[in-house]
Amino acid sequence: MLKYGFALIAAPLALTVSLPATAQQSPTDSLSKISNHLRSMSTMTANFSQTDRGGQMLTGKLTIKQPGKIRFEYQKDANLLIVGDGKALTMIDYDVNQVQRWPIGNSPLAALLNPERDLSKYGKIVPTRNPAVLSVEVSDPKRPEYGIITMVFTKKPGAPGGLSLDGWVSLDSKNNRTSIRLSNQRFGAPVANSTFKWDDPRRKSRTKR
Description:
Elements: H1 2-10, H2 27-40, E1 43-51, E2 57-65, E3 69-74, E4 80-85, E5 88-93, E6 98-103, H3 110-113, H4 119-122, E7 123-125, E8 133-139, E9 148-155, E10 163-171, E11 177-187, H5 201-208
Antiparallel strand pairs: 1-2, 1-11, 2-3, 3-4, 4-5, 5-6, 7-8, 8-9, 9-10, 10-11
């Protein structure tokens, strides 16, 4: 099961179709607007559907608390959890009692979880056919092994910075692609730090021996 989570965090989704830009704001203004959204978003919860390169879909609930905290709580039969505690991303596969951990900075998700990151250095706007939709591709040319993330936002009055995150695609250096689509986004609700703690299944496994 961990291979599905690995593509998500070690790693563009056609949420929108790329066409020549029409009556849209300049790329610089768009990047500024996205950066403002990420800095203004204190917390977000949403339902998600995750699709891997082979077409397998998993669903669950996403929780974000800035800076750096994220939780992917998957459907019960998946027995998989991904948690970011502000420093690292941890994937727990309860089926095989396996845990893997990576620095957040080594993941494409750093673009989402580090609101102070300068998108003008790492991001480029991807033209879309809908002027109400902004899409940004983020990667580090000096660290291609960290992968690429393409995030898609919809302009939404009342949301932080006037934008709502609709989803993203992460693409790793081995061309493993994972697509995330979000729905029922809610912003600003209190989220306890305990949300980003997790039970280590390896301890229970050792106890049983």
